[in-house]
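Changelog excerpt

This revision adds worked examples to the README so contributors can see how folded entries look when concatenated. The first example is reproduced verbatim below.
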Amino acid sequence: MVELIFGDLTGPDAVMAIVTALTGGLILGIAFKMAERGTPHWKPRKLVHVTMGSVIGLTIVAYSNLSGPTFAIGSFLTVILYAWAHKSTLLSELLAAGSREGESRTNTFVSGFMGMVAFALAFLMFLSQPSIFVSAILGVAWADGAGEIVGRTWGGRIFPRLGTKSVEGSAGVYVMSFLGQITSLVLYSRICVVCFLPHLLLIAGMVTLVEFVSRRWLDNFLIPLVTAFAMWLMIFPGMPLFMPA
């Protein structure tokens, strides 16, 4: 688990930070080109949504201390600023490329910002159990991402009076929420995962319900918090909050 101190930047941390920053820049570049070529905006949006969320969730707790993720953020911003210096409208165009049809750039920004706020809260509250934080991020990256990808690609049975929500999309949320929890527990905990399968299935159902009723940016904010608190209550009851390992 990453320590909440700014210590020495180790070699492995520096390499991981640079690879993360370059990967993020590459993903944004691919998404931008997809939108520029007329690809429906939900596809580049979800490309960024799923891949960037996965990168953050599966790397941040592996750093030695806060110097690693700080260096990663600085390196990523350097890549963005370098690209912006060659094209002053880049940031505005990136927001436009990541916006759904009929959605404003402001709403896209707020969606990403509220997601980061939820990640930060989950990180600070559940310091002693990194699998909870990773599950919170994967809940957005994998489960919420799957809802739109599966729903738009294979969705056919729309829930009555609920617009675009489909049975297939909700099934995708449920399955990927469940897999995200298992992945985080296998990687970052020592519990018997099989022993808690009923609990994980129940949590996946809660996440699916939250995604189902959420509108605009609410899913990005609520899914990680619901995932984190549900895992705390059902999988790690009694674990103190705000206590580093």
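The second example, added in the same revision:
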Amino acid sequence: MHIAIAGNIGAGKTTLTKLLAKHYRWQAHYEEVLENPYLDDFYHEMERWSFNLQIYFLYNRFSQILDIQKSGKKIIQDRTIYEDAYIFAPNLHSMGLLTKRDFENYKNMFSLMEKLVKGPDIMIYLRSSISKLVENIHLRGREFENSISIDYLSRLNERYEAWVHNYDKGKIISIDVDKVNFVGDPKAFGSVINLIDKEINGLF
């Protein structure tokens, strides 16, 4: 069983991953953030470091999903390889921060990798307003994220919505984090668990 959590920067993916891993007693797989050698440079000079960052994420995400598939364990995963390929990389290309040559190279690598992996059994999409994203980003206090612009977050949100609308890799659950406070409200977290349990039961 493989559950993945998708959502924009600051949507609450890591927090929900921790909560679900604890509740179900499943293994958590987190996105490498603090260990990423390109993130700080990227947010200060996006055009220079976009390709390096995306290749780093692509490799790490591909390696992670291979480990998940080989393990045979029940896994909760923080972010997926699909978000890099369908949201972040195309967004950087459309903003003129990733050249056509580099973007085509990236897409070719992803296309090859995609043939070797499968989507999660259940995808949980955390939908969030820009104001909520900004609030969460400021609360966690990562210095390198201070330069993230509203425009950048807005562009990502638009792409997330389009991606989720056309998602066809498996079951998907959408949660509006502006309305469902799964961190501070046990009832709200319980409602999330109920949604997941319903989909898990439907798989068997």
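Reviewer comment on example two: Residues 8 and 148 are 12 Å apart (CA to CA). The chain has one domain: 2-202.
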